[in-house]
Amino acid sequence: MRALICLILSLIFFTAHTETSGSTIRPCKKRQLKLMTNSKRILEEISSKHNLEILKKSLRPKFKITKTALLGLESYIYLFGKMQKIDSIEIIDGNIVVCDATFSDGTIQFNFVWEKKKKKPQISYFYIRAVLINKKNEYSNYVDKLKKSINGKIGAMKTVCSWTYYGSITGTANRSLALRWYKLVAESGDPEAMRIYGSNLYSGKFITTDKDKAMEYIKKSAEKGDTEAHVLLGIAFKNELKFKESFRYFMKAAQKGDPYSECSIAYYYSLGAGVRQDKVKAEIWARKAVNQNYVPAMNLLAYILAQNENFCNEALRLIREALKDQPDRASYLDTYGFILFKQKKYKEALIQLLKAEKLSPDHPENIAHIGDVYFALHQTNAASKAWEKALELVQKNSELPENYRKQLIKGLKTKLKILEAVRTK
User: Fold this and answer.
1) How far is C-alpha 280 from the geometric centre of its chain's CA atoms?
2) Contact predicate 169/131, CB 8 Å
3) Shortest CA distance to 364 belongs to which of 338, 390, 400, 403?
4) Which of 74, 206, 249, 275 has the most CB atoms within 10 Å of its CB?
5) Which of the following CATH numbers is that of domain 362-425: 1.20.1070, 3.10.580, 1.10.3470, 1.20.58?
6) Would you give the end-to-end CA distance of the chain in angstroms?
């Protein structure tokens, strides 16, 4: 590893004059790097024999370099073969270090962004803008290398998969090809690759959908302890309305501290979805996610607390914090209105609830809350219309957990009976 780091430092900060390469340093706009001999120490530490010849002379380091920058370059050097010569090192645009090097597969340009520090400038991260100047830039040329890299070079392979998926190499993403490569890594048993390939198989956005196969990959990833795979399985089973299975996978991720899953567990406990309803446990799990500043959990915890008028002040603080992040989110505005309703601030509550309805017209709980406010304001006709609409929406909504759906229907029918009794007096 020390050898590899030295090699990378040499690529970035050093240039070399060799008997075979004749490499030179281009002058740069901001400054010209001065050549200084420091080869003895470097040559003693580098074990890559094919690079020794071009490192006979070098430049003294001008920068520090972070581990993030080193990690990206490590994979890149491995995949593109032996280095033949360093063509140039220059600084452009004030904070970009550009290093052109000839490898066995062509000329490759490395770009690094550095930031000024008090003692010494620091390379903060690494990216690629131009590759394989001397050869056609066809990803398919590297499939064989990727296959060979399975043994002991999974990290390098995943790095290039990621570059291809997001277009980091050429500026143009090639998702379908990247996913073929991710499949190679997934078949080697790598949990991250199995999860990425499986999730794309499930969505079908960039490759043909195969949900059964997708679930196989994601489940295998989860079996190897991949937290994000547990989250994906929780979501997938939730979409299929299999709340017990969803709860089980969310719980595994929540126990590892995933805030989305902690919030989901709190939500399931609050509704009794896939688990027996337990408002105390719902509050406990919601607080865990809030402690990680997970905004949706602030909304959920605020709604849970508002069920008890004694905790409305804390609930109000939480929902206002959530609304700072997303002021136009219907569910947050509904919670805000519900809290104001519980505080008997009916007119203020109605303003927020109607805002929520405008953003999400078919949200049954929100419309039920509007009916509650109208009833409190003695506007019985408006209350009746709101509750009847909410009841119709709940009865048509097959995506709600069945127990919670039955609770809503029973509650709305009870309110309508009470309203009818009030009218007949």
Assistant:
1) 30
2) yes
3) 390
4) 249
5) 1.20.58
6) 86
Put simply, whether the predicted model's pTM sits higher than 0.90 gets the answer no
Q: Is the pLDDT of residue 106 over 80?
A: no
How big is the CA angle at 188 (ends 186 and 191), to the nearest 5 degrees? Answer: 50
Beta bridge partners of 128: 110
What is the b/e burial string over 82-115, where b = at least 16 CB atoms within 10 angstroms of the residue's CB?
ebbbbbbbbbeeeebbbbbbbbebbbbbbebebe
DSSP state of 417: H
Residue with tokens 């004030």: 94
Do residues 206 and 176 make contact, with C-beta atoms less than 8 angstroms apart? Answer: yes
Q: 112: closest CA among 8, 237, 226? A: 8
- Residues 2-48 have pLDDT tens digits of 444 444 434 333 333 333 333 333 333 333 332 222 323 332 333 23
Going from N- to C-terminal start, the domains of the chain cover: 2-131, 294-352, 362-425
Q: Is 270 within 8 Å of 296 (Cβ atoms)?
A: no
Q: How far is CA 54 from CA 21, 58, 384, in A?
A: 8, 9, 84
Beta-bridge partner residues of 112: 97, 126
Distant-in-sequence, close-in-space partners of 252: CB < 8 Å, separation ≥ 6: 222, 227, 230, 261
Local structure of residue 139 (DSSP, 8 states): G
Report the side by side order of strands in the sheet with 83-92.
Answer: 64-65, 122-130, 106-115, 96-103, 83-92
CA distance 194 to 145: 20
Spatial contact of 363 and 351, defined as CB atoms under 8 Å apart: no
Residue 206 in 3-state DSSP?
Answer: coil
